[in-house]
Design goal:
The complex is a heterodimer. Chain A is an alpha+beta fold. Chain A has four helices and three strands. Chain A has a three-stranded antiparallel beta sheet. In chain A, helix 1 crosses helix 3 and helix 1 packs across helix 4. The longest helix of chain A has 26 residues. Chain B folds into four domains: 60 residues, no CATH class; 200 residues, no CATH class; 310 residues, no CATH class; 200 residues, no CATH class. In chain B, 53% of the residues lie in helices and 15% in strands. In chain B, a hairpin with a 6-residue loop joins strand 5 and strand 6. In chain B, 41% of the residues are buried. Classes of the chains: A alpha+beta, B alpha+beta.
Chain lengths: 117, 875
């Protein structure tokens, strides 16, 4: 059981920065619940990124603890009670930071990957 | 707190996951999938719900809390499954922790700042030590006290005096212990009154008589007035003088054990002396104060030489110094004893846990196999250990409460400050909790370390029952058992020494007969019977009245001579015999009946008669010790003896003219204890009570019935002579005088507690041994079965079981004896007697071995009566 759990934890660590960025970005368009977030990420990535629930929920709870997002119980359009997450002011700043970090990183990686001329 | 928040979050997480699943399923059904199929697909996609929740919870940072709760729950279940084990373990701990907590609270109460007074650490007693090292409290007269107050090292000083007064309201006068305090005293002590006010400077204005105001002691207020809250401005009559009550002191203000506190005015009379109270300035060291006081007191000694020894050093003492020296060692020794008891208890639980740990190896191996980490198992086992120790501590504290009461009852009455509150309080509770933690870790860690490392493959393959503990486990057992036995032996030896010393003291040859005799103290009021003749007549009349009662066999005056610790120590001279060195004897002032009342034999010469008493003839009897020591040729009778210090101080102390001149020795009496029960008998001199009559006397009364039964009748007789005359508080019979000697009380305390602790230790060690052997036997059932099937006899099996225990018992006994002999020095400092006493050692070893044998016998018997057929099927 321990090993299995450790595998999950490893994956969180691997994806941590990116997943956080994706969640924050998704929430920029408005409050959303966990399921909605995972669907949104999947759809916008052209079904390429499958967010694992074992990563999503710990990430949501961690972001909430860091006060970058806040949660509220609301009723969805389908009359379903769900926990909606929403960006906070600090979260918005964090999103900007993460985005610039990401673009730097992808530029750097692109630079490395570019075949020498 | 956390628990409720956590619970709420758990529910929220649950709901969150549920809503996720439902929304995902709905979306699928909306596109036309079958409902059940959709749910299954969603679950598959979601993954392990429990695991997702688990990793999410980890983010909260409370994982350890949940695990502890799990561990605790699991531990409780394990304990409930083995109630016998749990009870033995918890009781072992409760006894140890309870006894240690009790001892600690007594030590904390008595030795750690027991005083309620402001800056009590700087308050000192003025003490001088003579050349022989004897300490003596210094008393100063009015002018001297004024000078002392001016001294550079003194921040504040006050003075006190004490006397026995009496209420003159009831049918018989009741004794009231009055403490007279200079009116600055309450500022000096810095303790506000409980009700009303303390004494004020205006209560004793300069140059006038003090006001008739009184502050009540707390206990007296409770006893005499039933704690009346409206006491202020009521009056109390003391020796026909009416005092207005202005306040009640706080319960812990017990300075001088006063029942009433009255204003004291210092007089200029050089004879009248008072007890000084001093607080040093903050930066002044004791040594600096001693240096300053030395020259001051030397000057005082020139003015009033009788108040001081000839040569002395001033050595101020903190308020608690004397008590620490007196009882601190004893208490530390007892704390050491209970610490041993606690260690033995811990050993017991360790053994039980180890035994159980081996039995649980299978369980632990399974847990380890399905993924429990080593640290996780360690934590589980430690949690269980801590649960045991905290339960034990809880029970122990409850136990400690009654033990504290017992110890306080047995504490020598005047060897601890009465300001102390000895009870289970917050610091003590902290101590107990710390103790529980510590013991839990101490006894839990070694079994946990051993059990948390199961060799999975081996354990899982092995048959669950047949396993015998590995060599390593058995060695740990043997060491623990040996350690327990060694410590128990040490405790037993300590108890043996203490008891032997105490019994020796109880059986000491007293030299007098204390049974059916009581001593009635009679404090004479100020300004009454102040001429020698009047006081002589008064004492004589009191004796006549009491002696004439039908229940009384005989009665005599024993002003300062009630044994076993009696007389005034005086320097004395023998005529025609130059003093080689300072020779001291105890001078007793008595009436001639004294010897008959106490059954002390006259060995030589005669006793003075009635008319010689009346005239105050200068005649003396000496005890055998003095005769032997100073008249080795047996020529004492007829010689002359004198005490230069034997002088009166009218109007308090009335002496016959020339009381410091020569007395003729007219006889020798048998030796009787005069310096307590432990010290050798000191040289004693007996002279007629009319030689010296202080404001206090005692009448010794021998009766046919238990003497205290006629105390009221005696008080009535005294009352009939003088309507204001009370008997002193706490009249005791002479057996009571013996049992209130500090050495008796201390011996009693140490012997009883030590004996109690040793018995507990023995019981614990026996339980430990019994559990180990029982456990070993049950593990080896199969082996014994095979051996018997192959022809081993019962005695062989018995022998095998005993042999397995014999090594550790023998090791323990040897270690214990070595320990006892090594620690003899420490022990001997506080306990009379020596543990090197061969008899004690032999008895103790016998007791230990017999107990160990008994503990092994039952399991061994069980082993030897195994039916091989059953044993082999037992698998």
């Amino acid at each position: 059981m321990i090993e299995k759990k450790a595998r999950y934890q490893n994956r969180i660590e691997l994806l941590q920065g990116t997943l956080d960025l994706l969640i924050l970005q998704t929430l920029q368009w408005g409050a959303q619940h966990g399921y909605g977030i995972s669907v949104a990420i999947r759809n916008r990535s052209g079904e390429l990124l499958q967010v694992d629930t074992g990563s999503l929920y710990p990430a949501l709870h961690r972001l909430e603890r860091q006060k970058w997002i806040k949660a509220e119980w609301k009723v969805s359009e389908n009359k379903q009670r769900a926990k909606f997450y929403q960006l906070t002011a600090a979260g918005k700043k964090q999103l900007t930071r993460e985005r610039s970090k990401w673009s730097q990183l992808s530029d750097a990686i692109a630079g490395v990957l570019q075949p020498e001329e | 707190m956390n628990f409720w928040r956590r619970k709420k979050r758990e529910e929220e997480l649950d709901a969150e996951v549920q809503s996720h699943l439902q929304m995902a399923a709905r979306e699928r059904t909306e596109v036309g999938k079958d409902k059940r199929e959709a749910e299954q697909a969603v679950r598959r996609e979601f993954g392990n719900v429990g695991l997702v929740k688990d990793v999410t919870r980890d983010v909260w940072g409370w994982r350890w809390l949940g695990e502890i709760a799990d561990d605790a729950r699991y531990g409780l279940r394990m304990l409930a499954k083995n109630p016998g084990f749990a009870i033995v373990a918890i009781l072992s701990l409760a006894l140890g922790i309870g006894a240690t907590t009790a001892m600690f609270s007594v030590i904390y109460g008595v030795l750690v700042n027991p005083y309620p007074y402001a800056n009590s650490d700087r308050m000192v007693h003025l003490v001088v030590r003579d050349t022989g090292g004897h300490r003596r409290y210094v008393e100063l007269n009015g002018p001297q006290l004024r000078q002392l107050r001016q001294a550079a090292s003194v921040e504040s000083s006050a003075a006190m005096d004490g006397w026995e007064l009496t209420t003159t309201e009831g049918d018989l006068p009741e004794n009231v212990h009055a403490v007279y305090l200079t009116p600055n005293s309450f500022v000096h002590f810095g303790v506000p009154a409980l009700i009303g006010r303390g004494l004020l400077p205006s209560d004793a204005p300069e140059g006038q008589d003090p006001e008739n105001v009184a502050v009540l002691g707390y206990q007296f207020w409770q006893r005499h007035y039933g704690g009346d809250p409206d006491i202020v401005s009521k009056n109390i009559q003391l020796v026909h003088k009416s005092y207005s009550i202005v306040g009640v002191v706080r319960p812990r203000f017990t300075w001088g054990d006063g029942e009433v506190y009255l204003p004291l005015k210092l007089t200029a009379d050089p004879v009248r002396s008072y007890f000084p109270m001093i607080r040093l300035k903050p930066e002044v060291s004791r040594a600096a104060a001693n240096a300053e006081f030395q020259s001051l007191v030397e000057q005082f000694a020139k003015e009033t030489p009788t108040h001081f020894p000839e040569h002395f050093r001033v050595a101020v003492e903190g308020l608690n110094d004397h008590f620490v020296a007196d009882i601190g060692g004893t208490l530390s020794l007892l704390l050491g004893a209970v610490a041993l008891l606690l260690l033995i208890g811990c050993g017991n639980v360790s053994i039980l846990l180890l035994a159980r740990g081996t039995a649980r190896q299978h369980e632990l191996a399974v847990r380890s196999a399905i993924g429990a980490g080593r640290s996780r198992l360690l934590r589980q086992l430690l949690t269980e250990a801590l649960m045991l120790s905290f339960t034990g501590a809880l029970l122990g504290v409850a136990l400690a409460d009654s033990l504290v009461k017992l110890i306080v009852n047995w504490l020598p009455q005047f060897s601890f400050p009465h300001e102390a509150t000895i009870s289970i309080n917050l610091p003590v509770l902290f101590f107990s909790v710390g103790l529980a933690l510590l013991t839990g870790i101490v006894f839990g860690i070694s079994p946990a370390l051993q059990s948390a490392r199961p060799d999975v493959a081996q354990v899982m393959q092995a048959n669950t029952r047949k396993m015998t503990a590995g060599v390593h486990g058995r060695r740990t057992h043997s060491i623990l058992i040996a350690g327990q036995i060694a410590l128990t032996l040490l405790l037993l030896a300590g108890a043996g020494v203490a008891m032997r010393g105490f019994v020796r003291m109880m059986n000491v040859n007293l030299g007098y007969d204390p049974h059916n005799v009581m001593s009635v103290g009679i404090p004479v009021h100020d300004n009454s019977y102040i001429s020698w003749e009047a006081r002589r007549a008064y004492f004589h009349q009191l004796l006549q009245k009491v002696g004439g009662m039908p229940e009384v066999v005989s009665a005599g005056i024993s002003t300062n001579a009630t044994p076993p610790n009696n007389g005034w120590a005086q320097v004395f001279e023998i005529s025609g015999k130059p003093m080689a060195e300072q020779q001291l004897a105890r001078f007793n002032v008595i009436s001639p009946e004294y010897f008959a009342v106490l059954h002390i034999p006259l060995l030589q010469g005669r006793i003075w008669d009635e008319s010689e008493t009346t005239h105050g003839s200068k005649l003396a009897l000496i005890n055998q010790t003095l005769a032997r020591q100073y008249f080795p040729n047996g020529d004492a009778v007829g010689r002359e003896i004198r005490a230069p210090g034997l002088k009166g101080e009218p109007p308090f102390n009335l002496a016959i003219a020339a009381s410091d001149s020569w007395f003729q020795i007219i006889g020798i009496v048998g030796d009787a204890r005069d310096d307590g029960l432990r010290n050798p008998i000191k040289p004693s001199v007996f002279v007629p009570y009319t030689i010296m009559m202080p404001q206090y006397t005692q009448i010794l009364v021998r009766t046919m019935v238990p003497p205290l039964k006629i105390l009221r009748a005696v008080r009535e007789q005294i009352h009939s002579v003088d309507a204001d005359q009370q008997a002193a508080r706490n009249v005791r019979d002479l057996d009571g005088w013996i049992t209130t000697q500090p050495e008796w009380e201390q011996g009693h305390l140490v012997a009883s507690l030590f004996a109690g602790f040793a018995i507990l230790a023995l019981a614990l060690a026996a339980t430990g041994l019994y559990s180990v052997i029982s456990y070993a036997v049950s593990q080896r059932t199969g082996e014994f079965g095979i051996r018997m099937a192959l022809g081993a006899r019962r005695t062989d099996v018995l022998k095998m079981v005993f042999r397995s225990a014999a090594m550790s018992v023998a090791g323990g006994v040897v270690t214990g004896v070595v320990l006892t002999i090594t620690l003899n020095r420490v022990l001997a400092r506080w306990i009379q007697g020596s543990s090197l006493d061969a008899l004690i050692l032999v008895v103790v070893i016998l007791i230990m071995v017999a107990t160990a044998g008994l503990s092994c016998f039952l399991p061994a018997l069980r082993a030897s009566s195994i039916d091989p057929v059953v044993a082999l099927r037992y698998e």
